[in-house]
């Protein structure tokens, strides 16, 4: 059917409003990127920079100048990849076991997991537990305390419960064990859920900061977020000295605001790159375990 004039007007208005909303949403991130590439002299002399006359990579050179930065990126990558893999393995396997009605003591385990969501032990008990287990100054201290969560377990459990029981029965008739059913039937069918939860886990591990401050004292094991914060503190301390601020024109000292913007870009780019590859699973995965009427 040929669209009417009213339909075309509505579509035009709709696209215009949505485009404006998208532009307003993107402006803060675009401003961060622009400022991170702005020359120090221009940033200091102007109150706001929308399109710099002179582009500069000084902020990124400053961030990359430290010997520990690349090492910290490696630590964050190990946490994001290894931690996410372990979290998905634990979450999916635990959820599958709890979804089986024949599990003895099922209600006890469900209540125990629910209590972890309702009552948080706090920072000091968590630190005492990690220290007693000998995990301080190890990467395990950044993985094991946040390995999974009750919310993810319950969502995955509901997802497995919604699967037809005939799938498991047919697999067992063909000779599959419980482990075989899980790896050959359940896991392939739960790829959208694993992709959605994996993105959440990966972002959490990549942005690890507070736990690293508590449990890690070795510079070689500090993740990227901690190193970036140390660089920002160092730059802010230098700029607090009026004599240092006055030397920007001659020595091209990078203002802390520009370094901050560059740090945001560096910490955000990996997740922004990964997201498009998981986008096709994300919407479907978000519906995992939802109540269907």
From TrEMBL:
Chief localization: membrane
UniProt superkingdom: Bacteria
Membrane topology label: Multi-pass membrane protein
PROSITE patterns: ABC_TM1 (PS50928)
Family of this protein: Belongs to the binding-protein-dependent transport system permease family.
Annotated protein name in UniProt: L-arabinose transport system permease protein AraQ
Pfam families the record matches: BPD_transp_1
InterPro entries recorded: MetI-like (IPR000515), MetI-like_sf (IPR035906)
Naturally occurring in which organism (per UniProt): Paenibacillus konkukensis
Occurrences of domain ABC transmembrane type-1 (ranges): 73-277
UniProt entry keywords in alphabetical sequence: Cell membrane, Membrane, Transmembrane, Transmembrane helix, Transport
Gene name tied to this protein: araQ_66
Places the protein is found: Cell membrane
TM region(s), chain numbering: 12-34, 74-96, 108-127, 139-160, 181-206, 258-278
